[in-house]
Amino acid sequence: MFRGVTNVTLDAKGRLAVPTRYRERLLERGGNNLVVTVDSGHILLLYPLPEWEQVEAKLNSLPTTNARARQLQRLLVGHATEVELDGAGRVLLPTPLREFAALDKRVVLIGQGNKFELWDDARWAAQREQWLKPDGDGTPLIAELESLNY
């Protein structure tokens, strides 16, 4: 499981140095092969290849006659790009994906169980503050969360 929030820096070539504490788990889950793709909110998702293959299979099994399903397939599968963790523990993020997420130098890497989210530092800070407001974004909790005692 990947968890935690880590501030990282992209180098001039657009490489992200994966924190040491995650490298071993990434290697265990998929070797050096990862997949990066887009997500709503103009962020990127970073998966070990085997995890991504499971997500991709689910996306591809959705009915193509459903407009929303087709949109998700086009966005997530269409932008999915295989990347490799190099010997120094870095991943080169493709320029079009960096531009989509407005990633420049300061990036936040957020563990989300089977994947990571990559956020622009300023966007993450603003969104986090919004979520921490008493009413959050006004979205009601789903039934499964109403009973969660955390």
Task: Provide structural commentary.
By secondary structure, this protein is an alpha+beta fold. The chain is built from 6 helices and 8 strands. The strands form 2 sheets. The chain has a 6-stranded antiparallel beta sheet. A two-stranded antiparallel ribbon has the order 2-6. The longest helix is centred in the middle third of the chain and has 13 residues, at 67-79. The radius of gyration is 16 Å and the shape is globular. It starts with a strand and ends with a helix. The model has no long low-confidence stretch (mean pLDDT 90).
The order of strands across the largest sheet is 1-7-8-4-3-5
Which of globular, elongated, flat, extended, rod-shaped describes the shape?
globular
Question: How would a textbook summarize the main sheet?
Answer: 6 strands, antiparallel
**How much beta, percentage-wise?**
25-35%
Mean pLDDT: 90
Question: What are the main properties of this structure?
Answer:
single chain; 150 residues; alpha+beta; six-stranded antiparallel beta sheet; two-stranded antiparallel sheet
Q: What's the layout of helices and strands?
A:
Blueprint: E1 2-9, E2 15-17, H1 20-30, E3 33-39, E4 43-48, H2 49-60, H3 67-79, E5 81-84, E6 90-92, H4 95-100, E7 106-113, E8 116-120, H5 121-132, H6 143-146
